């Protein structure tokens, strides 16, 4: 029987095995990271300072931006420093902590997006009851539930992944500790763990997605009953930014994680993860600032010489 030694340190492959591409990828992602941080910080500052944006929709958007700041900072800074310094090692505990934080923030974003869909649905379907229903207490409760659910969801996936034995090889084909890449390194059959992960993720994600779809079905049904064309477009315009965020989040997330381990490709997984974990947080501020007059106005007040 072979002598199995537990792995205490992993090695992250990074963005590429080619040194030149590593540096090019790191430089590009550094610029994208800075854009993501600055864009989301601008959203948070604008919503905080502009009294016209103290509404439920922008309250949720503010927390979405905070989640995006934390999410992109969980993976990219360490990967960029490792590329620049050539230090690719990460301890088992640090790897588990990174995975926990990344999954927690990703799932919290999923719950927040669902809450935002409910908010838009209520604003259009029951406008007279909207203020009473979406009180500050209700908004705080929804955000608290989103964070609490994210913590529980993340705790399950972290325990489910790191209850597997790792005894070598220890090179992770990724630039951060991610579930599919880690499960490929397990020196035991991971089928049961993968099935459990898919089952829990499927239930949670499909529930959130289903509630979001139902909200938009109700929105469309309500809009179709509006006689004025101008009023229809006005109602739909309040949802366009959120709908774009929904499509971006679920589209990139499903391509990154909704595939079995047997068909997992390191290159494909890396590209999908970059899009999901890096580009999505970067594009969200653009979506909400370019297509939203109130947000553009708040950003112009905040940055009078900015390009808004």
UniProtKB/TrEMBL annotation:
Main location, first listed in the record: membrane
MF terms (GO), sorted A to Z: G protein-coupled receptor activity; olfactory receptor activity
TM region(s), chain numbering: 26-47, 59-79, 99-118, 139-156, 198-221, 233-250, 270-290
Cellular location(s): Cell membrane
Ranges in a coiled coil: none
G-protein coupled receptors family 1 profile domain segment(s): 39-288
GO CC terms, sorted: plasma membrane
Membrane-related topology note: Multi-pass membrane protein
Keywords: Cell membrane, G-protein coupled receptor, Membrane, Olfaction, Receptor, Sensory transduction, Transducer, Transmembrane, Transmembrane helix
Family stated for the protein in its record: Belongs to the G-protein coupled receptor 1 family.
The protein's role, per its UniProt record: Putative odorant or sperm cell receptor.
Name of this chain's protein: Olfactory receptor
